[in-house]
Amino acid sequence: MRAVLMAGGSGTRLRPLTCDLPKPMVPILNRPISEHIINLLKRHGVTEVIATLHYLPDVMRDYFQDGKDFGVQVTYAVEEDQPLGTAGCVKNISELLDDTFLVISGDSIADFDLQEAVRFHREKGSKATLILTRVPNPIEFGVVITDENNRIQRFLEKPSTSEIFSDTVNTGTYILEPEVLDYLPANQESDFSKELFPLLLEKGEPMYGYVADSYWCDVGHLDAYREAQYDALQQQVKVDFGYEETSPGLWIGQNTHIDASAKIQTPVLIGSNCRIGPRVNIEAGTVIGDNVTIGSDADLKRPIIWNGAIIGDEAHLRACVISRGARVDRRAHVLEGAVVGALSTVGEEAQISPGVRVWPSKQIESGASLNINLIWGNTAQRNLFGQRGVAGLANIDITPEFAVKLGAAYGSTLKVGSHVTVSRDQRSISRMVSRSMIAGLMGVGINVQNLEATAIPVARTVLPTLGVAGGIHIRLHPDRPDQILIEFFDDKGIDIPKGKEKKIEGAYFKEDLRRAQIHEIGHVAYPSRVVDIYSTAFEQRLNVEAVRNSKSKVVIDYVYAVSGAVLPQLLAKFGCDAVVINASLRQSAPAAAEKEVLLGQLGHVVEALQANFGVQVSANGEQLILVDEVGTPIRGEVLTALMTHMILTAHPRGTVVVPVQASGAVEQIARRHDGRVIRTKANPTALMEACQANDNVVLGGSGDMGFIFPQLHPGFDAMFCIAKLIEMLTIQERSLGQIWSELPRISHRSQTVRCPWTVKGALMRHLVETHSSEDLELIDGVKILDRERDSWVLILPDAGEPLVHVFSNSEDREWMDEKLREYRAYVQEFIEKEQGFEEVKR
């Protein structure tokens, strides 16, 4: 027996799932609906299938091809010009139907006993047998009434409530004799339920209804789509799962890794090649496709996640559908009944409200709340560059193809034949991205000086000596271990300014990429003596004699992220004992909690070895946390104050450059030493530029960002900072603990408030308008001064996240705490008011 699989439907009510898929190819348990139907046919001995196609026919043809891989023979009939209706498309292939045949809908899930239905058809001598089923609410279906012998008496297509005369409905599955097609006109649209069956009834042809007690679900709308998944998962319908049942109610594909700390309540289906992170919570009813990545601490309550989706850390999904290749970023919420279309992105901390549908390839901004369907337009990416460089999820945002294009965009802003340096940390992901960027640069005629795995301070130092137009450094992000950070330097080694970033963005987004001719293609060189150049500059700016006489012992923790252990070699050269721990390389960066454990261990080692101090180096040689001689960590604002105190003691009347949010202790220390403080915007480029632009700058930066010694090179350098500490401690004959005790006691705290991007500007304007201009400082954000107390509050919008930071600084701790509470509440109240106003406008 042959079967006609009606698979031409566009599935309008299932959109956005069917925007780029025909309805029969929408997946149930990671397999298209039509595959479940073919499996049903095959189980009942039907192996010849003719699929009638109309909407996006190539999707199904490409998937099933000739059907051999699915154990059947599949041929296709495509309605090219116009849809012919359920009966018209079968009439169109009548020459292939010379015996009793089956017609089955391609958009339902069922486990009918087809063999029993065929036996019933033949036993009754029926010309047309409709497989019927009973449903509680028949309003959406075609109602059929039969007599006591199951002969059909009457039809009513989609009745109103008052017209219901039976709960027995048409399932769209029919067993037909070929002669019934003679009643249909050729090449005209016609429908089984509306035209053919009423006509057969009128002509008195024997027509019967086989009432099946089996499961049947018409996947006609999004609620039904989810219900069909849940029913299949609970085995209320017989379907092939396609994966091994590793334990009762848990089906897992091949090559899938689930972290041991993840919690799973069955039944759950997880596809092949998936990665489930630590502490993920997966509740019963969840369906996860193939090649899906779930970040740590994600909370999944019955979502249906299609192939290739990426779910970020701490994301919350509630009975929603996440389509093919979509992304839900960190801490985003997608609530009940919502649908995220294929290749769309839900930004960090965004929220998709219940029932909201997002069409394919849309971008929801970080922190946004979406309450209406997003169909038209495409929310554009704001920019490539963030607070520092280009950052994105490793091998998800920052892929080889992205890096090639970014390298070409950067190179297109330079003259053909220019030279640039490319450097990276030692991790494989960084090597992959750097090679891709080199290919992009070469393709637009740029020559590359490949420094390979190099600490950032070394890369910045050698850059001006190579006569290049600029440089690129690729590394794991210092604050986000799942992200890659790509930084661009100018010819002096300073991070490029905003104007240059905009040029690169323009070339990238406008596809304004130069194509070099064959003879112009760039070449790659590997400079020698890179470390020697850095070492020479290092020594020239250090009191080597003081360091040599110190006989210091220092413990250096590289936190499994070393890129060239330059520092121990240099310190050994000066007669210092450098004990290195955790210097082996790990491809993934340690999480914050693990770094804290390592910091505690560092303190114990310092005490045990009676070392002068310990230091934890991070950010590929840029940042550090100190540990004093008794094992106590020194970091953040205390570290900023300590470095300022020591440097100004060594260089009185010097200038120190710090970011706008740094503690007021810096000014108090500067007054003691007749020094000067310059505050800049809270970004690395502003700090570097200010250190170069002002006279007599002896120190720049902060404990959080790292420290700049402008005479050496324009960037942050933890390695030189350590050597300088040894020098100053020796000359000043003090320990870190003693210097710490002399620092001014300033109270400095901060808190963070979630703030949508759309509200940030209005908040800043409101703060400026509601405070006296005499009490304001507008370097970056809004700083409100209390000059009598020498205290301040700073409200600083985050450059890369939908957040606002509130800082409070004072010698009076009670004042600081009170103002921090006051302004946090002030900011939250304004945000809530603005969001309420936006809701009213909608």
Automatic annotation (TrEMBL):
<keyword id="KW-0963">Cytoplasm</keyword>
<keyword id="KW-0648">Protein biosynthesis</keyword>
<feature type="domain" description="Nucleotidyl transferase">
    <location>
        <begin position="3"/>
        <end position="234"/>
    </location>
</feature>
<keyword id="KW-0396">Initiation factor</keyword>
<dbReference type="InterPro" id="IPR029044">
    <property type="entry name" value="Nucleotide-diphossugar_trans"/>
</dbReference>
<dbReference type="InterPro" id="IPR056764">
    <property type="entry name" value="LbH_EIF2B3/5"/>
</dbReference>
<dbReference type="InterPro" id="IPR036900">
    <property type="entry name" value="A-D-PHexomutase_C_sf"/>
</dbReference>
<feature type="domain" description="EIF2B subunit epsilon/gamma LbH">
    <location>
        <begin position="252"/>
        <end position="352"/>
    </location>
</feature>
<dbReference type="Pfam" id="PF02880">
    <property type="entry name" value="PGM_PMM_III"/>
</dbReference>
<dbReference type="Pfam" id="PF00483">
    <property type="entry name" value="NTP_transferase"/>
</dbReference>
<protein>
    <submittedName>
        <fullName>Sugar phosphate nucleotidyltransferase</fullName>
    </submittedName>
</protein>
<dbReference type="Pfam" id="PF25084">
    <property type="entry name" value="LbH_EIF2B"/>
</dbReference>
<dbReference type="InterPro" id="IPR016055">
    <property type="entry name" value="A-D-PHexomutase_a/b/a-I/II/III"/>
</dbReference>
<comment type="similarity">
    <text>Belongs to the phosphohexose mutase family.</text>
</comment>
<dbReference type="Pfam" id="PF02878">
    <property type="entry name" value="PGM_PMM_I"/>
</dbReference>
<dbReference type="InterPro" id="IPR005846">
    <property type="entry name" value="A-D-PHexomutase_a/b/a-III"/>
</dbReference>
<dbReference type="InterPro" id="IPR005844">
    <property type="entry name" value="A-D-PHexomutase_a/b/a-I"/>
</dbReference>
<dbReference type="InterPro" id="IPR005845">
    <property type="entry name" value="A-D-PHexomutase_a/b/a-II"/>
</dbReference>
<dbReference type="InterPro" id="IPR011004">
    <property type="entry name" value="Trimer_LpxA-like_sf"/>
</dbReference>
<feature type="domain" description="Alpha-D-phosphohexomutase alpha/beta/alpha">
    <location>
        <begin position="534"/>
        <end position="631"/>
    </location>
</feature>
<dbReference type="InterPro" id="IPR050486">
    <property type="entry name" value="Mannose-1P_guanyltransferase"/>
</dbReference>
<dbReference type="InterPro" id="IPR005835">
    <property type="entry name" value="NTP_transferase_dom"/>
</dbReference>
<keyword id="KW-0597">Phosphoprotein</keyword>
<dbReference type="Pfam" id="PF02879">
    <property type="entry name" value="PGM_PMM_II"/>
</dbReference>
<feature type="domain" description="Alpha-D-phosphohexomutase alpha/beta/alpha">
    <location>
        <begin position="637"/>
        <end position="743"/>
    </location>
</feature>
<feature type="domain" description="Alpha-D-phosphohexomutase alpha/beta/alpha">
    <location>
        <begin position="383"/>
        <end position="513"/>
    </location>
</feature>
